[in-house]
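Reopening: structure tokens for the adenosine-5'-diphosphate complex, inputs below.
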Amino acid sequence: MFRRFRPYFRYLLENRGPLSAAIFYGLLFGVTSGLGLPALVKYVFPPIFDRQDPPLASSTIWLIAASVPVLFLLRAVTGYLNSYYVSLTGVRILEAVRLDYFRKLQWLPLSFLQRKASGDLISRGLADTAQLQFTLSLVANDGVKQPMQLLGALGFLLWQAFTTDGALLVLVCLAVVPLTVLPVHYVGKKIVKRALEVQSQLGDMSSQFVENLAAAREVRAFGLEQREIERFSQATRGLVVAQMKTVKYAQALTPAIEILSGAGIAASLVFAYDAGVKWDTFFAIITALYLCYEPIKKIGYLNTELNRGTASLDRLEHVLHEPVTITDPAQPKPVTRLRGNIAFTDVTFSYGEAPALSGVNAAIPAGTVCALVGPSGAGKSTFANLVPRFFEVGAGAVTIDGIDVRAMRLADLRNNIALVSQEPVLFNDTIYNNLALGKAAASRDEIMAAARSAHADEFISKLPQGHDTIVGERGALLSGGQKQRIAIARAFLRHAPILILDEATSALDSDSEAAVQDALRKLVVGKTVLIIAHRFSTIRDASMILVFDQGRIVAQGNHASLYAGNALYKSLYDRQQGAV
Ligand code: ADP
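Re-run output (same inputs, fresh job):
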């Protein structure tokens, strides 16, 4: 099992300082407890009980008595320092693992993230890393202290076996020690599977949390409160059941070890009587024995936690080991500013089994405003998403200015593309900072100019704190049209030669609508634009239209030629005209 954790020892190495301190104090703790306590009983106390003639000087008695608090003080201080440094190591490790996990999430392909519930990914990043920290710090903690105490106590027992007449007794007692390891082994095996179940239930519960909060409006609108509560209560009940299964085994461990130890002590008593062992030897041995069982108990618990940790590690590694398939090429073509000639050659792509695009060919010359039209699910978004290489083509190639998108550095490629999505996402930050995301190191003047071009300054200046207004989570404090204008301002700021526009399906209020349309008209000038178009007013103005159906481009042309020559296009257009 330790092998599983080996790749993570580098985290321990990075924390060499506190770790060495932890181990040093752990060693001292082991010696003071395992060896010190029984030695005290055997060698320091006897003068107090063996009434001597002449009686002991009271200063000697005080000195002997004082050895007890001194030893306990040593034990307490070394134990404390050991725990302190172990926790420090643990917290630092947790920080490193979480950061690695988060870093990995930034680079994982979208296709992977879309397959996973975000609540589950959050739970892995928080609960599983916490479990791992707990395990790691426990290993570092009891992993040092307890074996040391065990070794100290065993050392004392062996020493007694050779130096006193109670050798047989010592051996009998020692025989019980390996027996107590049996339940530890048995319980450990039972725990792994159940621990995995607990963490996965925790993941389910988090998913429901996230889903519920994201759908707060729908829950109220459709009166789903009761249903949601029931669904959540099922998830929590599942967690309770899974947790109790681990408790059943974990909690049986200590009593099992204690019963076996009790039997060991009973056997020792009988042998001690038969062998006529003196009381000081006997109590010293019992003390040493007790000091042996305690570490075994703790090591047993450690074993349980190691198993839980392994389960969490499995869940983290599922993400950490997921290959990052969309990466920079080994020898990237140097790219600065592209002109924006986009070409698809025999492109095939599928998310799963069924192809979302098959045999797609298209050439979109630089400076063209190209509308992507077709029924829902036809493949328009997929087509647009292949240009910034959000997904990797299955076959064929996407090129810009004749360069395969896979041959460029991702940062170079994406620097040349601006994206305005249907529901722009804003971070819970000021308007100004949200705008600034459009371009690294943009000056204040540039940002203000972009806001003006997007007609965003009109509403920004009316906000209580202007550009410094915090927009709330996902921009909750702004209207749909306002968010759109922020997104357009970002695109202005980015000033990229290629623009991908996912047109909003929902209608905006008429003021916003006019402002957004005007801003967009200015934005598209001189750029290669892909519009996932839902409105035929937009489509009519496009210089090129691609009609999608079932993952293929079935027609291409301008509005007039398509309306006259393509039945699908005509029916889509007429349907929308009728709806308006
Ligand atoms: P459109 O934009 O024309 O509505 P899409 O490009 O979004 O169509 O989808 C094309 C096909 O791919 C659809 O059948 C859709 O169900 C499927 N699809 C889209 N996104 C995903 C995804 N993330 N995972 C699996 N299938 C998807």
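The two ends are 66 Å apart (CA to CA). The first helix runs from residue 2 to 5. Marking as resolved unless the reporter disagrees.
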